[in-house]
Amino acid sequence: MEPSNPDISILRQCRLLGLPRSSYYYQPKGESRLNLTLMRLLDEQYTRTPFYGSPKMTLWLKTRGYAVNHKRVERLMRVMGLQAIYPKPDTSRPHAEHKIYPYLLRGVEIDHADQVWSADITYIRMSRGFLYLAAVMDWFSRYVLSWRLSNTLESSFCVEALEMALEAKQPKIFNTDQGTQFTSEDFTGILKDREIAISMDGRGRYLDNIFVERLWRTVKYEEVYLHDYQTSGEAYLGLKKYFDFYNTERFHQSLDYRTPYEVYNFGLKKKPEQTENNGSNLEKDHLILAQKLS
Fold first, then answer.
1. H-type alpha helices, the chain
2. Cβ(124)–Cβ(24) below 8 Å
3. What is the C-alpha to C-alpha distance for residues 91 and 83, in angstroms, rounded to an integer?
4. How far is CA 215 from CA 119, 134, 218, 267, in A?
5. Phi-psi region of 271 (alpha: psi -120 to 50; beta: other; left: phi over 0)
6. Are strands 116-126 and 129-138 parallel, antiparallel or unpaired?
7. Does 91 map to a domain?
8. Are residues 247 and 151 in the same domain?
9. What is the tens place of the pLDDT at every residue in 53-70?
């Protein structure tokens, strides 16, 4: 972002980056410096041990020298959208008026692209605050179809990510957790209008959306934890660069050491014949996206 640029306004720059203007002007409020430090620690530990609930997180922080109580840790984890992976009673519940759909993928063989997509949200720390990241992924290829950042957990940025992913193709099944962002009519209505089957994880079932959970771990260890984002614009640019790398350059052992872009577009049975053409197609994809953002 260039706030002093006389030719391109802040609003125009935000639109070009696909960044809500409110995120650019965002100033973290309501969390002390200590709480932000605790949230950074909780985020790192949760990435290592996603089965830790607030009681174990409280004990872990105490071993690190922080005199915190269970209620404080529980609140911070709720703000961050963190929940231990095992089922448990009386956890945060979906909106009472939102319909919950059954999980459709148990025992289903995922053998081609655009068979199943999924979406999820994670916490992204910054130097003086935090953001939320939503992404849509193709299960078969691990290809990240779209993503959006927000400074709140409202459903709008999830809807934006969904609409962007659906611009070119659509899946047969779309899977999410039971969070209110995904159970809202704004989100599910788009899927129903396109006659896409809606699948939702069992409450607290970490393995039901395991591919996106693995994506979050990869993004944090290979990008977020290596940088200290100062602004939301800086976070956006860092994540954009990383997702480009993840999709087109990062080899995946589970994909026979191919990239998500290759598998999404060409499948696993044979590799594309001409690498130069693949690069040309990828450049076209980025050009189309740039034109849409402008």
1. 10-17, 21-24, 33-48, 54-63, 70-80, 156-165, 180-183, 185-193, 210-222, 232-248, 260-266, 275-293
2. no
3. 8
4. 11, 11, 5, 20
5. beta
6. antiparallel
7. no
8. yes
9. 888 999 999 999 999 999
Question: Do 121 and 183 meet the contact criterion of CB atoms below 8 Å apart?
Answer: no
Contact between 20 and 57 under an 8 Å Cβ cutoff? The reply is: no
Q: Which domain, by its residues, includes 23?
A: 18-80
Is 31 inside any structural domain? yes
Same domain, 57 and 201: no
In the numeric block, the tokens 């125009």 are attached to: 12
Q: Provide the whole-model pTM.
A: 0.71
CB-based burial of residue 86 (10 Å sphere; 0-12 exposed, 13-18 middle, 19+ buried)? exposed
Residue 155 falls inside a structural domain: yes
Do 140 and 245 lie in one domain? The reply is yes
Cα dist. 121→35, 62, 132, 269 in Å?
21, 28, 7, 32
Same domain, 174 and 288: yes
Residues 201 and 277 in one domain: yes
Q: 276: buried, middle or exposed (CB in 10 Å: 19+, 13-18, 0-12)?
A: exposed
Looking at the domain assignment, is residue 204 inside a domain?
A: yes
pLDDT tens, residue by residue, 167-222: 989 999 999 998 899 999 999 999 999 999 999 987 555 556 788 888 999 999 99
Question: In this structure, which amino acid lies at residue 212?
Answer: V
Look at the chain and report how many structural domains it folds into. 2
- Phi and psi at residue 113, to the nearest 5°: -65, 155
Q: Could you tell me if 154 and 225 lie in one domain?
A: yes
Structure token digits, residue 225: 């934890």
Residue 199 belongs to domain with CATH number: 3.30.420.10
